[in-house]
């Protein structure tokens, strides 16, 4: 249980680092770890006297300032007022395309996931999209997705949005929009670059030295286990409870 | 004028074969009215989730009430995937019309404005364009040369949602949940269940009027206490997490789903 908590705490702290410098981050449905990362960034900036961060968490009343209904997040993104967002995927391929629909033949997919949500639209419009998927396995990270819910690169239309990084249980990758693929940035302890290679079904760039993902420091952990999990409990009660019980 | 009727009378306003628009969990889902629809054995609904759904869609799918489903996702949120939706996809139990959230809002907006389609940013490159032949990519008729996606208007036969209160004239308080107004503007008929009817006029002050859907857009109102249960209703009650988890576990099998459905309908009757 505590190994699981530590793993999640590394992910949350890494997300807060990836968000550094943004002024508005939105978090979609069923995303407790990204929501916690966004809250950590907000709290850290506030305590460190850095510029304030706005957070919009879908499904939250307390951490959501929208007043124009469900459409407002999408309008806001179209206006360039959302700097960062998170997308996942049942499958993610080496070109950064994501599949939230299913595997096998559409429409009677033998594995069916919930659906594309806002991905097909938001991927075009939000500059810093962080791909987040905990499971790191060859069935998730495939050479080519079975269904493209949202495409990473579309030279045929102008766009400001797209993938910025990919974060998993094992590693952190950067996305290179020029090259159209991922590059391994760091590996979370106790995993090695060889573990990452073995569990990734697509090709990616890897430097000579791959560093270890930074573990959160004591101050970050104290903030997480106190204020952040408290804030998170309003939208994600089950997740916050599990994290606090483990602490 | 808006009629104020009993819950059962409101539910029979939804007819087999109609398109029915419902809001996302947490916005104000009319679960008591859904129980009444299930009780009445409604069939062949063309369900439109604005822009996603969870327990409500899964119940209607599991009970065989749906002919087609237009949605951007079906999920039980923290309780996991929607089991009857997943099973129904595999068996081809209904026609699936996959969408993306802002495309559903854009379709409603087109209906709201009385135009046949609405242009929308993004989407290009997505396989959704292959599975939605009714969506098109056009050359922008104005400004610099560029491609843009257009989606057809969505005008549901019926919109159905739940809210805290209505006044005697049928004005409904929707707070900042403007998506409920989007549903009502676009729909041919809007049915609303509420926790209570209040004697004061909700349009009396600027303060209350700002969060109100005027009765012009509301056809029928019925009182249904705890009418969103087990889903949450903003400012009124949280989700019944244990009940939703119980559903998620039971609905994994067809028999389990039937057993859940039967206790759900009994429970709803006891509340009423």
Any chance you could write out the topology, listing elements then pairs?
The complex is a heterodimer of chains A (247) and B (272).
Chain A: H1 2-18, E1 24-27, H2 32-47, E2 54-57, H3 72-78, E3 84-87, E4 91-93, E5 98-99, E6 102-103, E7 111-112, H4 119-125, E8 128-132, E9 141-142, E10 163-167, E11 171-176, E12 181-187, H5 193-199, E13 211-212, H6 218-232, H7 237-246
Parallel strand pairs in A: 1-2, 3-8, 4-9, 8-10, 12-13
Antiparallel strand pairs in A: 4-5, 6-7, 10-11, 11-12
Chain B: E1 3-5, H1 7-11, E2 19-23, H2 31-39, E3 45-50, H3 55-62, E4 66-71, H4 83-91, E5 95-98, H5 101-113, E6 117-120, H6 128-131, E7 136-139, E8 147-152, E9 158-167, E10 172-173, H7 178-186, E11 189-198, H8 206-209, E12 212-213, E13 220-223, H9 241-250, H10 254-271
Parallel strand pairs in B: 1-13, 2-3, 2-9, 3-4, 4-5, 9-11, 11-13
Antiparallel strand pairs in B: 6-8, 7-8, 10-12
Helix pairs in contact in B: 3-4, 5-7, 9-10
Short note summarizing the structure:
Chain A has 247 residues and is of the alpha/beta class. In chain A, 32% of the residues lie in helices and 19% in strands.
Name its key features:
heterodimer, A: 247 residues, alpha/beta, Glutaconate Coenzyme A-transferase, six-stranded mixed sheet, three-stranded mixed sheet, 7 helices, 13 strands, 32% helix, globular, B: 272 residues, 2 domains, eight-stranded parallel sheet, three-stranded antiparallel sheet
